[in-house]
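Consider the following assembly input.
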Amino acid sequence: MKVILDGMGGDHAPSEIVKGAAEASHIIGEHEICIVGDERRIEDELSRHIHNRASISILHAPDIITADDSPAKSIRRKPDSSMVKGLEALRDGKGDVFLSAGNSGALMSGSVMILGRIPNIDRPAIGSPYPILEGGVALLIDAGANAECKPRNLLQFGIMGSIYAETVFGKEHPRVGLVNMGTEKGKGSPLLKESFELIDGAAGSLGLRFVGNVEARDVPVGICDVIVCDGFVGNVILKMTEGVGLSIMHLIRKKFTEGVIATIGATLLMGKLGELKKTFDYTEYGGAPVLGVTKPVVKMHGSSDSKAVLNGIIKSLAFADGHAIDAITENVAKVAELGEAEGGEAESDGGEAGADNNNGQ
Amino acid sequence: MKVILDGMGGDHAPSEIVKGAAEASHIIGEHEICIVGDERRIEDELSRHIHNRASISILHAPDIITADDSPAKSIRRKPDSSMVKGLEALRDGKGDVFLSAGNSGALMSGSVMILGRIPNIDRPAIGSPYPILEGGVALLIDAGANAECKPRNLLQFGIMGSIYAETVFGKEHPRVGLVNMGTEKGKGSPLLKESFELIDGAAGSLGLRFVGNVEARDVPVGICDVIVCDGFVGNVILKMTEGVGLSIMHLIRKKFTEGVIATIGATLLMGKLGELKKTFDYTEYGGAPVLGVTKPVVKMHGSSDSKAVLNGIIKSLAFADGHAIDAITENVAKVAELGEAEGGEAESDGGEAGADNNNGQ
């Protein structure tokens, strides 16, 4: 496999991106990395780290899409940017997966504009690895690309998420749950009720293991492997996990250093606290796949350091082989056929997916 | 003040409810409690606890609305239930506030049907006390009564929440935040953008301290005193706080008892862990007000024990005086006038608020 890496996207680009690639070059075996960006700057950064040059190539791209650039416009106006060049290289078969820590909205728009949507997919989505505290990882979809969704979109998220969890995370028969206000069948808004019916009805013929409605309370303990929700709710789930986690850790540190005895206890436990922190560390789980476009694209966190880039590269290899995309294409077509056979709605709701309401991971 | 208490609502009714009332009777001074429910059962429970009989009266109601009853229907079909009798007593001036740990949806429907909405309020909402880990408490509104909301609803939630936080929590000039996917002005769905504009535009003339969009990540650390969102998102925020909190506590307990040294440390820290748990304890903060109806109604958690009931009674006294409701009535009328002056939309979207998409706290 050849990983195409956006060398210029992210808060710490190109230094940390290139450093991560250099580290990865020693352990990816026969796989390759193509770093896209300003050739001189990339070469300069590469020279600072021991790397396996045989595994690394550079694709020159003089321009950069910044975090402040307008998503859809920047793709059109910056044809020489590392993001556009990288996506074009992926489209043209010069690599197997594209990774970027750059502007999320632009990556989403660019993926749709340059690679195109998988037939019958109305809205591509971002899947985010969601670490389960007790161990393991789930996939949350949508993580913020589509603030408002129709039932059909949520069904497609479930299909795409299930396939990704199976092929990339290696989960057997992943459990797909729909985030709702209660677990009973008739819960939530009319839209949620309709979504439940649609997913429940399609699950059988697709081999989808739909476990029904799940409550937000049960998401952190791993009630399901694929967490289906609209992008607004997905954003709230991810941000609440981070916010509650950080404030508890902060409070623990504070409480545990109040008084002499507690401080002695805290000192003894510091190592354990470090392990806990690691559990929250999203960089451990690789990046977030853009699902619903014709080729594998992965969004890495904007603040990715070299370790996150290294992990992102390694974890992306299982996505790069294209099996997930083939399976998504097949299953979504099957749903479309079912819909037509039943005279159901088949029209696309158009619009560039996530062009404007995107949100950084 | 006279607190009307639903003696039969909740998982532990009537025993824990009556026990809580008996405990409260010793400390409420000149205030009174009227327990609504089956007279014999209430008397029987009361006889088990030392109580100040001069502060407690009983209003007989032979029927019970259960957790499984359909919200709107049960109000019509069970006129002799403790919930209906209690709300009618409040309506008729036989008390100043109604507290119930019973069926949330029925309490919401019953409040609207029996007490009526405040003029110009389209959708009453449930405000939930949200404990800030570092100390203090915010009010989240809506906590689950309205899964889908229009911008006008969110503005009204902001007004009601701000007044409640000021009059009941005693916050001076509370900060009102709108939960969104990012803090910038143009973030989120069209509905959220419109809501931002509406609240921002009305804030000046209402003296509302609108701090703009807030991210879910910053909610647990107390970025604002009033957390405005639709009921679906509100439910996700509350449940995520609970879920993440519980799983971290569980993990800490597990990690901290791995190995001898950590176990010694953990033993030294047990007291501190207990304090932490108390911070999460929602029962400390009293119940959740039903806001937007003409009299003060408070929903207590379904699993309320006597301590929660005791706290619920004490905290409800500041709501019982009616000042919050007067201020809400006044401010919402002001917004309606502004809307008419600007030729804005003034029609109600009708329907019984929260009759069907309610959700237990």
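Residues 125-290 of chain A form a domain with the Isopropylmalate Dehydrogenase fold (CATH 3.40.718.10). Ask yourself how this observation constrains the way the partners meet.
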